[in-house]
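Job type: complex structure
Entries:
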Amino acid sequence: MAQERLSMVVFSGTLDKLMPVGILASGAVAMGLEVNIFLTFWGLLAFRKGAAQSLPISKEYEAMAEQMKQIMAEKKVPSFLDNLRTAKELGNVKVYACGMTMDLFGLKLEDLEDVVDGVVGVGEFITTAKEGKMTLFI
Amino acid sequence: MADKVIDARGSFCPGPMMELIRAVKEAKVGETIAVLSTDSGSKRDIPLWVQKAGHELVGVIEHEGYDEIVVRKLR
């Protein structure tokens, strides 16, 4: 039987939308799925080295921003990068940067956080995603 | 008494489960591992993981303010 897979297109670069990426990847790994993540546009920019420390909250939840950041700091909630690192350590999680976004913003793989495995085109992501049962757009 | 106890109290979903998975990987077959958790998701998730991963759920003990979930590594 082919390995079950969760694929995620990560388009958003706001903290509130990146948190579930790390958590869903962890849950998928725990339940024996492999994980295939495609970072594009704002989602990719959030994976530039150091960018995670100063990410905004989505506009529609802005009123909660300060409270959310405070609660997360107080309760020592791991960052989405830490959650992804744990998921990668315990399972098969691949994080790919969108080649088009890389070209558009003049980025190189070494500009990105160490959790990013490589740069792929959309065609390759779709080819991998189509064999899986679950694909999320975040 | 479990061979190893992981105190994951205060850690949020999926923290306790991920700590347990790591500990089970490092343990020997037959050893028991207890995870202490205050996270409500973990109480449901961990037994699911145990079943999926083919280990044995020895017990889920509810203490005052936290749960103790005990797992035996089977393979």
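Summary: The first strand of chain B starts at residue 4 and ends at 7. DSSP finds two helices and four strands in chain B.
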